[in-house]
Design brief:
Elements: E1 26-27, H1 32-57, H2 62-90, E2 92-95, E3 99-104, E4 110-115, E5 119-125, H3 128-132, E6 135-142, E7 149-155, H4 156-172
Antiparallel strand pairs: 1-2, 2-3, 3-4, 5-6, 6-7
Helix pairs in contact: 1-2
Keywords: Membrane, Transmembrane, Transmembrane helix
Pfam families: bPH_2 (PF03703)
InterPro entries: YdbS-like_PH (IPR005182)
């Protein structure tokens, strides 16, 4: 199989420690860097382009339009170059017989653990930019007030397989997920 459509990583038992908080071991797909870069460009580019276009069309206001364009473009460029690579280093996921583990964020980083007995639904999410990169996300909804666990940036085939496996496992796990 090619790395793009590799089979899902093998699950492992959490061992005697159970479902304790620990870093998950699987990175997201490398294409997530391109996806996050595309998201950053969609956020940063439009206001800069509008201001530059207006500066070209309105010569007397050129300085006052290019000034905010530069003020947005400089940190926006830094954000676009740094954020995707940083997130790739942080985002991890893993499933075991007992739980789903996820680490995410870039400025505010968090680790989440969802025991199988607490999982209520498992969904696949694919936005338009994700689809361009052949990626998908998995949302694991639990009975937690902290909200769902999201594993973004997975190969779409891996995400579909993960949803299927988690759904089967949660149906076989005793408890009412509350």
């Amino acid at each position: 199989m090619s790395p793009r459509h590799a089979s899902p990583p093998q699950e492992r038992s959490a061992g005697p420690a159970g479902t304790g908080l620990r870093p998950p071991r699987h990175p997201v797909d490398r294409r997530a860097v391109g996806w996050w870069t595309g998201q950053a460009l969609v956020l940063v580019a439009p206001p800069v382009l509008v201001l530059v276009l207006l500066a070209l069309l309105i010569p007397p206001a050129r300085f006052w339009l290019l000034l905010p364009a530069g003020a947005i473009a400089a940190p926006g460029l830094l954000y676009t170059l740094v954020m995707p690579r940083w997130r790739y280093r942080v985002h991890r996921w893993e499933t075991t017989e007992e739980a789903v583990y996820a680490a995410s964020g870039w400025l505010w980083q968090k680790w989440r653990v969802a025991p199988m007995s607490r999982i209520q639904t498992v969904d696949t999410v694919r936005g338009p930019i994700q689809r361009l990169f052949g990626l998908a996300g998995v949302t694991v909804t639990t009975a937690s007030a902290a909200g769902a666990i999201k594993i973004n940036g997975l190969d779409r085939a891996l995400a579909a397989d993960l949803v299927e496996r988690l759904t089967a496992r949660t149906q076989a796990t005793p408890g009412d997920a509350t």
